[in-house]
Amino acid sequence: xxMAADISKLNCIASNxxxxxxxxYPEDVLTAIKQNELDAVVVYSLDExxxxxxxxxxxxxxxxxxxxxxxxxxxxxxxxxxxxxxVNGGLRGRLRIxxxxxxxxxxxxxxxxxxxxxxxxxxxxxxxxxxxxxIEIPTExxxxxxxxxxxxxxxxxxxxxxxxxxGSFEFNGYRFMELxxxxxxxxx
Length: 188
Prior knowledge:
By secondary structure, the chain is mainly beta. It has one domain. About 5% of the residues lie in helices and about 55% in strands. The chain contains two helices and twelve strands. The protein has helices at about 5, 25-35, and strands spanning about 10-20, 40-45, 50-55, 70-75, 80-85, 90-100, 100-110, 115-120, 125-130, 135-140, 150-165, 170-185. The strands form two sheets. The protein has a nine-stranded antiparallel sheet, with helices on one face. The radius of gyration is 18 Å and the shape is globular. The chain starts with a helix and ends in a 5-residue tail after the last strand.
């Protein structure tokens, strides 16, 4: 449930969501990403989390896990997101597009991703936690910013909010929008 302070941050936009049928993997997924001009991809599999940006698809960097290893794939831009989930061995997809469809309330939040900057690995910057969890973010996200220990990667998440029958506001969906960099003050 939303707190009163959150309600003042709500914005009204138009948004629609449609279910997608995934007949062939990875072909249907790659086609949907290309057709919708999605420029960032986060793939969760049994073994790792993969983040790709920008022209990764046209450059042949289509590193997608085997169908059985895929847990979730989110390909996104500021206006839309393709979500693919492995549900009981079958793939289910949904495409959410802002700017068309029914009006709805949204709340955008920024979430820090796992870890602090550790090192550069090829064309990616590795962020890790003391627990061993890590994520590698493509260097191109950083532009002219030199990765350092005070830089953290974050992701903007759009939450979709609906009013319940009882008159309270509740979250009824979310999507990824954008990867960012943030300067943070380290308490250590």
